[in-house]
Q: What sequence folds into this?
């Protein structure tokens, strides 16, 4: 058994594991954090995306053993109880959630993007979304949701200054 | 009629917060006590006899609980044709067919043990195309297809051949029709195999209890079909199989008929008392569930020089895969839809569903419609050119409209919709800007296509609504429509709110289907939920209101028919102050001394397509569709010279939906449907090697559209010709945006570069090859 310590959704945890596991396996099977999904397990669909040390990463191909000391945020850590995150509200407002299977991954990617750069250009937003597959929405509502969220975020930043 | 909730945008999708927060429970998120995991062994050949299976070594591997093979099993299953086994017994017919399974404590252990199973095969000839499998002397994929059970003679195979089904329609006099024609077009088209590719792969958990009953959890929109087929397979009462459906991560067709459920139930039957989970990898999702499309067509149409269509002759060939149960239905639908949105006085269309060595063909969004309508809409464009007439004009001259009959002889009603208005809308959107002249980088073009589809299903297919008034006057709604993202929960909430005159927030919509408690429903397919489910809700609401009135009549000492309901009260029409609140009578009325009178307001209602018939066995004709939704699509595109890439500047869709129930939701259906169909048109295809192996079973090589592949703009406009029987005038629309996309784009490609493609997908390399050839020819001149 191997063991590492890392922070997941703000909680410091020490986790034992066999060695071959990917981050997604640990999240889903060991920690019950099933928001990140298995869509392809080859890094293509983005359904397993979580935020690792501030970066959006596909967790299906990220070996867990490399994450000692890492800080991880999953969709479960995004909303504060009944208080949804701006991105989640924007996705609902824009009707960007159909089946919802791609949603957690996409929201986490946008979270990482806007955290680094709230003023990301449309091209940068599209670049982020290009790492995700969604079969339901045709992407337009997702892009619209990203823009709505961005507006809220920028407004909030301004008002807090 | 003024509506309070119908057509309004401020209705939140029920259960959407679960989906936004990652808490929605999908099938793979479910863990049960004692759960075991299965992995499946697949064959090395797409068509072979199984000579022997040796599991000895595998049994000794760590964690292994059981090795399961099909040896000794006899009973087959299916819906209309029973030709499938849960697991291969004496032969394999496609590359993704289960040969054996390992059940172990972990998936990893199961996978390890798989490698130790030894199977000997005797390979047989492989066919992946109907035309090959139909040839004289072809090896038989099912040696005794005539022994399969089939529900009616319509589904009878042709013994001694690979033809699983032949279906034919005859309208008017085809010979006379072509005699009247001044111009004809005769072409061959191909819509190859594709996959639904939901982002959630298939998974199922099955538990065979020690008492012989089954409990199944699965991502399938047809839980009642799963229940029936599993019950039949194990010869137990249907009620002894209980199926749960959690959130589903997209369906698009291939999760609508039982696919892996009978297999997992079969495996579970070897470890009674232990739930067994099988979750497919993305690769298996391509190779071992249903694939879609796979139809070739040879079409001939004729018109007078004035542009009146007079004859349609067509042969359709479906490469139905190793099992024909769903495929044969697809073929029937394709034949019935072959006349598209046009009136042909004379038609003769023959279809063949042919066994091949591919995964079985199953539903794929709008099945049976994109295939023939692609051929027809392209042929019409080519015919228009021959006639020297704009394609839009030829279309207008021949559109189905009131009193005109489609290919199966069903007369359209005025309330079925207005294609002219749809074409006007699309033309306005696409033609408002002039097509730019070819420039250094691009060719430009425009194209159009009409579309039509009925919610065709089994004639007895119903949807149910179980509606309970709670003690505070709020309402619980249980139905069996699976919200796979199309947004039917929101539609259900809106229709219930409208029918019951109560605010949507007071209506709790179910988020799980359970065959033990949910009302029976055939399957959530065919864009039929709004239409049938909506009517079931209205019926249930009316039943509930009737009981409320009867209860109130007792309380108020009135006759029920002198009372009215306004959502909060039942009151006397003439003396509104004589009233009783709904929440006082929804569980009966409790008098001061405690005695209680009246009924509990808890009702169930069903709705099916009224008057839907099976086709006439002689002519193939009949009232098979009942309700039709029609529309037009068009696009302006540019083709990049350097790469051959098609870029869509504007894609316009106008569909006569009768009545828009949920504006945001319906827009989402069009946006998403168009993009999915763009994938089918420009990039998606399951590629088979000659040996029947799938060459691209992953999302890298089977490319579905990403954000860079979508149109720059989509123009969407709905026409609202109220349907006579649809709820509040509404018709189905979920699949329709898929239908006109391929022909519209291929027509635009011709407009841009003067080259006719007859097959999708038109990938950049195919266009590049054409452009290079064109350039060589020009240089030659
Ligand atoms: S599951 Fe990780 S990218 Fe698809
Ligand atoms: S919402 Fe279904 S895959 Fe994106």
A:
């Amino acid at each position: 058994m191997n063991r590492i310590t890392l922070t997941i959704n703000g909680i410091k945890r020490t986790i034992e594991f066999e060695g071959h596991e990917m981050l997604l396996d640990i999240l889903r099977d060991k920690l019950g954090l099933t928001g990140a999904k298995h869509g392809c397990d080859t890094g293509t669909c983005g359904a397993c995306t979580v935020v690792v040390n501030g970066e959006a990463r596909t967790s299906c191909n990220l070996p867990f053993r490399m994450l000692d000391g890492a800080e991880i945020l999953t969709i479960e850590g995004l909303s504060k109880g009944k208080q949804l995150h701006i991105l989640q509200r924007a996705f609902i407002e824009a009707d960007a959630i159909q089946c919802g299977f791609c949603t957690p991954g996409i929201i986490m990617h946008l979270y990482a993007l806007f955290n680094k750069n709230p003023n990301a250009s449309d091209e940068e937003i599209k670049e982020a979304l290009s790492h995700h597959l969604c079969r339901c929405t045709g992407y337009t509502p997702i892009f619209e949701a990203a823009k709505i969220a961005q507006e809220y975020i920028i407004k909030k930043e301004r008002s807090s200054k | 009629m003024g509506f309070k909730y119908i057509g309004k945008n401020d209705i939140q999708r029920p259960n959407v917060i679960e989906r936004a927060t990652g808490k929605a429970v999908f099938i793979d998120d479910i863990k049960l006590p004692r759960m075991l995991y299965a992995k499946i062994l697949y064959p090395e050949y797409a068509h072979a006899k199984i000579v022997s299976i040796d599991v000895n070594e595998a049994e000794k591997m760590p964690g292994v609980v059981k090795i399961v093979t099909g040896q000794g099993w006899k009973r087959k299953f299916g819906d209309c044709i029973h030709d499938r086994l849960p697991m291969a017994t004496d032969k394999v017919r496609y590359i993704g067919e289960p040969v054996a399974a390992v059940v172990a404590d972990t998936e990893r252990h199961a996978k390890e043990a798989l490698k130790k199973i030894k199977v000997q095969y005797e390979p047989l000839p492989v066919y992946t195309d109907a035309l090959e499998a139909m040839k004289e002397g072809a090896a038989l994929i099912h040696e005794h297809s005539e022994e399969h059970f089939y529900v009616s003679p319509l589904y009878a195979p042709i013994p001694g051949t690979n033809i699983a089904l032949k279906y034919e329609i005859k309208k008017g006099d085809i010979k006379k029709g072509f005699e009247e024609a001044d111009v004809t077009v005769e072409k061959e088209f191909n819509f190859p195999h594709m996959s639904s590719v939901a982002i959630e792969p298939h998974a199922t958990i099955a538990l065979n209890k020690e008492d012989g009953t089954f409990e199944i959890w699965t991502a399938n929109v047809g839980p009642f079909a799963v229940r029936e087929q599993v019950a039949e397979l194990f010869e137990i009462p249907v009620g002894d199989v209980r199926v749960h459906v959690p959130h589903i991560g997209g369906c698009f067709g291939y999760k609508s008929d039982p696919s892996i459920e009978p297999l997992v139930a079969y495996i579970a039957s070897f470890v009674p008392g232990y739930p067994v989970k099988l979750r497919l990898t993305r690769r298996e999702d391509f190779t071992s569930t249903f694939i879609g499309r796979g139809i070739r067509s040879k079409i001939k149409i004729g018109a007078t020089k004035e542009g009146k269509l007079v004859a349609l002759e067509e042969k359709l060939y479906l490469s139905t895969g190793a099992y024909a149960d769903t495929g044969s239905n697809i073929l029937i639908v394709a034949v019935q839809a072959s006349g598209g949105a046009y009136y042909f006085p004379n038609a003769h269309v023959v279809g063949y569903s042919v066994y091949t060595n591919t995964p079985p063909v199953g539903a794929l969004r709008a099945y049976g419609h994109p295939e023939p309508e692609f051929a027809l809409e392209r042929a019409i464009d080519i015919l228009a050119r021959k006639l020297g007439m704009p394609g839009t004009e030829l279309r207008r001259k021949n559109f189905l409209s009131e009193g005109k009959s489609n290919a199966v002889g069903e007369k359209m009603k005025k309330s079925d919709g207005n294609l002219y208005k749809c074409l006007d809308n699309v033309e306005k959107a696409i033609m408002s800007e002039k097509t730019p002249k070819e420039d250094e980088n691009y060719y430009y073009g425009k194209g159009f296509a009409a579309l039509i589809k009925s919610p065709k299903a089994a004639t007895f297919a119903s949807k149910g609504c179980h509606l309970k008034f709670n003690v505070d006057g709020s309402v619980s709604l249980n139905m069996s429509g699976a919200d796979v993202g199309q947004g039917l929960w929101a539609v259900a909430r809106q229709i219930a709110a409208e029918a019951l005159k109560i605010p949507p927030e007071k209506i709790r919509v179910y988020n799980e289907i359970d065959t033990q408690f949910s009302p029976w429903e055939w399957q959530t397919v065919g864009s039929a939920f709004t239409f049938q489910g909506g009517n079931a809700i209205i019926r249930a609401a009316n039943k509930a209101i009737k009981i409320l009135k009867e209860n109130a009549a007792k309380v108020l000492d009135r006759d029920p028919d002198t009372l009215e309901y306004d959502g909060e009260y039942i009151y006397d029409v003439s003396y509104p102050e004589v009233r009783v609140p709904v929440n006082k009578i929804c569980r009966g009325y409790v008098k001061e001394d405690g005695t209680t009178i009246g009924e509990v307001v808890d009702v169930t209602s069903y709705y099916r397509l009224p008057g839907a018939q099976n086709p006439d066995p002689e002519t193939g004709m009949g009232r098979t569709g009942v309700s039709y939704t029609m529309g037009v699509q068009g696009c302006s595109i540019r083709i990049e010279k350097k790469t051959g890439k098609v870029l869509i500047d504007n894609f316009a869709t106008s569909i006569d939906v009768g009545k828009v129930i949920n504006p945001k939701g319906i827009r989402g259906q069009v946006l998403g449907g168009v993009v999915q169909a763009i994938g089918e048109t420009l990039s998606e295809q399951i590629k088979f090697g000659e040996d029947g192996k799938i060459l691209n079973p992953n999302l890298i090589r089977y490319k579905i559209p990403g954000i860079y592949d979508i149109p720059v703009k989509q123009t969407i406009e709905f026409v609202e010709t109220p349907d006579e029987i649809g709820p509040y005038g509404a018709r189905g629309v979920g699949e329709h945006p898929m239908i006109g996309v391929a022909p519209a784009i291929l027509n635009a490609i011709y407009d841009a570069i003067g080259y006719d493609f007859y097959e999708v997908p038109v990938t950049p390399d195919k266009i590049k090859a054409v452009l290079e050839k064109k350039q060589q020819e020009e240089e030659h001149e």
Observations:
- Chain B has 17 helices and 31 strands.
- The two ends of chain B are 66 Å apart (CA to CA).
